[in-house]
Design goal:
The complex is a heterotrimer of chains A (390), B (413) and C (264).
Chain A lengths: L9 E12 L6 H15 L9 E5 L8 H8 L5 E4 L6 H14 L6 E7 L5 H7 L3 H6 L7 H17 L3 H15 L13 H6 L2 E3 L2 E2 L8 E10 H7 L3 E11 L13 H12 L8 E3 L5 H10 L8 H6 L16 H5 L6 H13 L13 E10 L4 E10 L4
Parallel strand pairs in A: 2-3, 2-4, 9-10
Antiparallel strand pairs in A: 1-7, 1-8, 4-7, 5-6, 8-11, 10-11
Helix pairs in contact in A: 7-11
Chain B lengths: L31 H8 L4 E4 L6 E2 L16 E3 L3 E10 L5 H4 L4 E8 L4 E6 L8 E8 L5 E7 L10 H6 L7 E4 L5 H12 L4 E6 L9 H6 L3 E5 L5 H11 L5 E4 L16 H27 L10 E7 L10 H22 L4 E7 L17 H14 L3 E4 L1 H12 L1 H8 L2
Parallel strand pairs in B: 6-8, 9-10, 9-12, 10-11, 12-13, 13-14, 14-15
Antiparallel strand pairs in B: 1-2, 1-3, 4-5, 4-7, 5-6, 7-8
Chain C lengths: L5 H10 L2 E5 L24 E9 L2 E10 L7 E3 L24 E8 L1 H6 L4 E2 L1 H11 L7 E5 L7 H5 L1 E2 L2 E2 L3 E2 L1 H11 L3 E3 L18 H8 L3 E4 L12 E5 L9 E3 L2 E6 L6
Parallel strand pairs in C: 5-7, 6-10, 7-11, 11-12
Antiparallel strand pairs in C: 1-15, 2-3, 4-12, 4-14, 5-13, 8-9, 13-15
Classes of the chains: A alpha/beta (390), B alpha/beta (413), C alpha/beta (264).
């Protein structure tokens, strides 16, 4: 029986996306500022009302969240900087929710934004972490593509996943993205195009990789009655989990932290996998999407390939997955990639989807993952949200 | 199967020479423990003194018991290649021009998983041997080899990039008048060097072994007097662009300490031959070596110094000589840093007394010139930076690692 | 004697009526030096280190630092150089009277004999035979041994074999004869050393050095162009550097020869 406190009365509102651009001469500060302004306006607030701020960004350096308070003219009584990449959205939400629950803050703006300049990606790779500097970058400098190629290769050998299986995930996400206004990838993708695309780092090929870009995503965390008072559609937070550096003795990563805590996620929420209407996985690579499907309880470990083969993953399919297209089709705006699924989930359960809507979406699952400092993703988390229909 | 290396064609004189680039050479201080091990060809990882866990990547605290005592120790280098990938594109210019590049995850028997460069003959799922090697940036990387040697193994392109193999390279041996110089000419020729230039000074002065030296395959005698700036510059002016490996065999050994060796003429000659000779070679050949570090199969690869092990600690019986050797060692360290930007390795071979005339009164064990030559060739083939040749040199190294002051006293009594 | 007309002398040199023959090898790093056994101190070879050459080390000038031994290249030996002359007065290059740097020369040709025998020794008989033709050697004359050895180079010039150098020179008797019977000013040779290559084995060893310097006389070595000089009639100008307590020095050796007497 979980001893964790439930999230009664905590909601997520004002989902915001600042349209992505491939390259931007603006700074991360600019992108973050735009997202914060949009949340504040949409929520009918003034800057002075924002008493909580959570920031995730790779390119805001040398500043951290504190620098942004003066930069943006905010005077919060609760401040957090969440440098967890693809897990930032879930983790920022978890912290903000407890702050609001305890009355430490009333309106917490959670924002993730990054710029992308011509040499941003290369510079980030070489200084990403101490272990990357010492033990990864000198080995071919293939970036995350090479690191995840090793994980994918092992997973394929161990569980019989094929490139076609991964391709199905990518093709479905592209179909979802075609109606999403902010997606940078606008052309349909066929499985033939996926299979014949050039190799990046075997077995990773071109369409397995996200496109780094500039952009920002944000949302507001507050009490349910406050949101109602502002007239804001909101998603209720049912449950969350978080786990870092799980299974350190696995020689190669084939499972993530969720596998350690996922029963608690559903128990806290009082739902089962059958109740979940859509899943937003963190899609740095399709193999990780498949891993999340297993570790989040939708099938047993090793059954991911079969699961993908026997389901349709479009917004109107049997297993709606990454319904706005995910990073693979929308683009990865740095840390905003870790917020993309959360923002899309809030829109889906509140009936405010910008693109394809999941029919009767009531309960959604958002999963976060990331931070490969050496050879595996260290950070993971997940959250269950519910809308008005739940 | 590794494709055997083909002897390179003559360079197209109209083509721009590829500029040497380096992979990223930044490492945390703890990770430099790997570089120390790689320099001597050892395989070492951090081993927790409290719980025995073998740890990688290098770090400040044991991930099992949080102990801060994580010294580098010799570790068994066997493992299994779990997964491999062939990288085809990179944001890093060095690797970009060397694509495709294979890396893989090796599960070491000793515990950790290591992301390593892969030798072309090692396939996924097979047993592997790991080695620590020094890459062009001067830092250690892990390379996974097949468990047993395979044909033409040294010709693997990723391996050749990490070593200074004399095969198909042009070697300059700076002084062929000595037994060591002659033994090296022979050893390097046997190792497959395409040309062995041998420098000889004072052609009017005969020397033993001259006839045999001239008959060694692919040896060409060139005029080179290491004590004469003009001679070194002229030799470099003519030959520097055709020297891929420079082995400085200059020798000047005399007994005596600082007080006993009366006068300064012998010290001057000693410094002139050893220290200034090295400086002249560095100035005359260094810039061209540095520019040719990425110039194809026979790229400039190494500058080899033969140093008495007494460069590291003075032996008063040969006290003045030891001091000169120490000066040469320090200069070699500077040279190492200065040549690095060209991807050229400085190799220091340390040895105790040799089986040559100026060590006549020293009791064995002594190093035979042929043994020294073999050790130098092996160091080049393995891409090592620091080698200790012979029992005395290894003994000195071991004692220095434990207590340098005690060694100073042992040699001085 | 009437006061010599020095201006006429200078005019004669400028006009070529007096020819100046350079008996000096160019100082280069390649020129061989005397080689002592390895345990002993060695003569430094000639070396040049460029200081600047119209470059960042000195924009408008070119100059070198040079180093050498006192006995490198074409050089002068002072009496103090040998143990037998160590206690004589005015025995170093800085104290030798300057007038002694100008003296006539008798050139004795043993080139044919030397070509046949690298160890050829000049004998008293050779000298008396020469005197029969050219007259008695005047007192305080240089005796220059023409062997044509300067036409050889490198290995042939030094002619070093397993038992040492093999080059021609004087036998002990002829040195004693020249010093005691002819008041020799000094001996000049084309080889490295005023003594023969194998003179270590003579009695006394190195008799030219021993007897000459013992009598306060001088040596000139590594000369060249002796084949251009007449047997008599040349005047040698050989002034070493004024080194304090110096045992010798490289120098410019010039022979003044009346026109028409220089050999082609």
């Amino acid at each position: 029986m979980s001893t964790r406190q439930p999230y009664d009365g905590i909601v997520i509102a004002a989902p915001v996306t600042i349209p992505y651009r491939r390259y931007s001469t603006n700074t991360a500060h600019w992108w973050v500022g735009r997202a914060v302004r949009e949340v504040v306006q949409r929520a009918g607030l003034r800057s002075a009302d924002v008493d909580g701020l959570s920031l995730s960004s790779f390119t805001v350096g040398p500043d951290t969240a504190i620098g942004l308070t003066q930069h943006l003219g905010l005077s919060p009584r609760w401040l957090d900087h969440v440098p967890l990449g693809g897990a930032s959205g879930v983790v920022a939400l978890r912290r903000a929710a407890r702050a609001v629950q305890c009355g430490d803050a009333e309106f917490v703006v959670c924002v993730a934004g990054d710029t992308n300049q011509v040499d941003s990606f290369r510079r980030m790779l070489s200084t990403f972490s101490r272990f990357a500097q010492d033990a990864v970058y000198p080995y071919g400098s293939g970036g995350p593509n090479a690191s995840f190629a090793l994980i994918a290769r092992n997973y394929m050998k161990r569980y019989g996943a094929t490139r076609e299986d991964f391709g199905k995930i990518c093709v479905a996400q592209r179909a979802n993205a075609l109606s999403f206004p902010h997606a940078l990838m606008k052309k349909p993708l066929t499985i033939e195009e996926y299979m014949s695309a050039r190799a990046i780092s075997d077995p990773i090929h071109l369409f397995d990789c996200v496109m780094p870009c500039a952009g920002a995503e944000a949302f507001l965390v507050c009490r349910e009655d406050v949101a109602k008072g502002q007239g804001l559609p909101a998603a209720r937070l049912l449950a969350t989990i978080e786990r870092h550096n799980a299974f350190p003795d696995d020689p190669i990563q084939y499972r993530g932290g969720w596998a350690m805590d996922v029963p608690e996620l559903y128990a806290m929420a009082g739902v089962t996998t059958d109740d979940v209407d859509f899943v937003q996985t963190y899609d740095d690579y399709p193999v990780i999407c498949m891993m999340q499907m297993e570790d989040l309880g939708f099938c047993a470990k090793g059954e991911g390939p079969d699961f993908v083969r026997s389901h349709t993953l479009t917004a109107d399919g049997s297993f709606p997955h990454n319904t706005s297209g995910g990073q693979l089709s929308v683009g990865q705006a740095g840390a905003a990639g870790g917020f993309l699924g959360m923002v899309e989930a809030v829109r889906q359960v509140t009936g405010t989807a910008l693109g394809a809507a999941v029919p009767d979406a009531a309960i959604g699952l958002v999963s976060g993952f990331g931070m490969v400092t050496y050879d595996r993703g260290l950070a993971s988390g997940a959250a269950l949200l519910a809308g008005g229909r739940a | 199967m590794t494709k055997p290396l083909q002897r390179p064609k003559r360079k197209d004189p109209l083509k721009k020479t590829r500029v040497p680039l380096l992979p990223q050479g930044v490492r945390s201080r703890t990770a430099l423990g790997l570089t120390s091990a790689a320099a001597e060809g050892r395989f070492q990882l951090q081993v927790c003194s409290d719980c025995g866990t073998v740890v990688y990547p290098p770090r400040a605290a044991c991930p099992r018991c949080l102990s801060a005592r994580l010294p580098f120790k010799d570790v068994a280098n066997g493992g299994t290649l779990l997964a491999e990938t062939t990288i085809r594109t990179s944001t890093d210019v060095y690797f970009r021009e060397r694509m495709p590049w294979r890396i893989g995850t090796v599960a070491l028997d000793a515990g950790p998983s290591i992301v390593a460069h892969l030798h072309g003959d090692l396939r996924e799922g097979e047993r592997a041997r790991l080695q620590l090697k020094i890459d062009k940036s001067g830092q250690a990387i892990a390379m996974a080899l097949p468990q047993s040697d395979t044909p033409n193994m040294a010709d693997d392109p990723q391996w050749r990039e990490l070593t200074c193999d004399p095969k198909f390279r042009r070697v300059l041996i700076t002084d062929g008048r000595t037994a060591v110089g002659q033994a090296l000419a022979e050893a390097v020729s046997e190792a497959g060097a395409s040309v062995v230039l041998v420098g000889v000074a004072d052609p009017w002065k005969p020397f033993p072994g001259e006839e045999r030296l001239r008959k060694i395959e692919r040896v060409e005698i060139v005029a080179l007097d290491l004590t004469d700036t003009i001679s070194v510059n002229e030799c470099a002016g003519e030959f520097a662009a055709r020297v891929d490996i420079l082995i400085n065999t200059a020798e000047y050994v005399r007994t005596g300490g600082i007080i006993d060796r009366k006068g300064l003429t012998v010290a001057r000659e000693e410094l002139e031959m050893r220290y200034f000779g090295l400086t002249r070679l560095a100035q005359a050949f260094g810039p061209v070596l540095r520019a040719r570090g990425a110039d194809g199969v026979n790229s400039a690869a190494a500058f080899v110094n033969l140093l008495s092990v007494y460069a590291l600690v003075n032996w008063p019986a040969y006290g003045a000589f030891s001091a000169t050797e120490a000066a040469c060692l320090s200069a070699a360290q500077s040279l190492r840093a200065e040549l690095r930007q060209g991807g050229v390795k400085v190799v220091n071979a340390f040895f105790g007394p040799l089986e040559t005339e100026w060590y006549q009164a020293v009791p064995p064990p002594k190093v035979a010139p042929a043994a020294l030559a073999r050790a130098v060739v092996r160091a080049l083939q393995q891409g090592l930076e620091d080698v200790f040749v012979g029992d005395i040199a290894e003994d000195i190294r071991a004692r220095l690692a434990v207590d340098p002051k005690a060694l100073e006293r042992e040699l001085g009594s | 004697m009437a006061a010599p007309d020095l201006l006429a002398f200078a005019g004669a040199v400028a006009a070529g009526d007096i020819e100046v023959v350079d008996l000096t090898h160019t100082l280069t790093p390649e020129f061989p030096t005397i080689v002592m056994p390895p345990e002993l101190g060695q003569c430094a070879p000639f070396r040049m280190e460029e200081v600047s050459r119209y470059d960042e080390r000195g924009s408008a000038w070119y100059w070198n630092n040079i180093s050498m031994g006192e006995h490198t290249g074409t050089h002068f030996d002072a009496p103090v150089h040998w143990i037998s002359g160590k206690d004589l007065a005015n025995n170093s290059v800085d104290t030798i009277p300057a007038a002694n740097f100008i003296a006539p020369a008798a050139v004795i040709d043993i080139s044919t004999q030397s070509a046949a025998n690298a160890d050829y020794e000049l004998t008293v008989a050779d000298v008396t035979a020469w005197e029969a033709q050219h007259g008695r050697i005047p007192p305080r004359s240089w005796v220059l041994l023409r062997t044509d050895w300067s036409k050889k180079s490198g290995r042939d010039y030094v002619n070093m074999r397993e038992d040492g150098q093999h080059t021609p020179g004087p036998c002990p008797e002829v040195v004693r004869f020249l010093v005691e019977e002819r008041d020799l000013h000094g001996l000049g040779t084309e080889t490295i050393g005023t003594d023969a290559g194998q003179a270590f084995h003579f009695n006394p060893p190195y008799p030219a050095h021993y007897y000459m310097h013992g009598k306060g006389r001088y040596g000139l070595q590594c000369l060249t162009n002796l084949d251009l000089l007449p047997p008599t009639g040349s005047v040698i100008v050989a002034a070493p550097l004024k080194i304090r307590r110096g045992s010798g020095s490289p120098l410019r050796v010039l022979a003044l020869v009346p026109r028409g007497e220089r050999r082609a």
